[in-house]
Amino acid sequence: MAWFLLFLAGLFEIGWAVGLKYTDGFTRLVPTALTVVSMVISVVLLGLAVKTLPMGTAYAVWTGIGTVGTVLLGIWLLGDPANLVRVLCIGLIVAGIAGLKLTA
Q1: What is the pTM of this model?
Q2: In which domain, by residue range, is 83 found?
């Protein structure tokens, strides 16, 4: 269950990171509110997950999920560059997440 909570926390991490782009510097009410709610949910779920998972592993996986998801959505939604080096780096992060999961 802790891994599932951590996965959900990572998804909300993606939500608030991408949401920042749509807040327009926190001047738009609805995107700002949704971003803040995503932040709170993400941290609360991370806090629940670390009750049973090793802190370093949980934090690294949480940020890894957020990083990979945010980069992919940036490419897909916002037109961020998708060159070979970026894709390879995303693969390295995914490999690191998988390695941490397998050793925890």
Answers
A1: 0.88
A2: 2-103
CA distance 66 to 61: 8
Question: Concatenated DSSP letters for 47-78?
Answer: HHHTTTS-HHHHHHHHHHHHHHHHHHHHHHHH
Backbone angles phi, psi at 82, to 5 degrees: -130, 60
The CA-to-CA distance between both ends of the chain, in Å, stands at: 14
Residues 58 and 6: beta-carbon distance below 8 Å: yes
Read off the pLDDT of each residue in 28-48 and give the average, rounded to a whole number: 98
Q: Are 61 and 101 in contact (CB under 8 A)?
A: yes
* Sign (positive or negative) of CA dihedral 3, 8, 11, 16: negative
Distance between CA atoms of 43 and 4, rounded to whole angstroms? 14
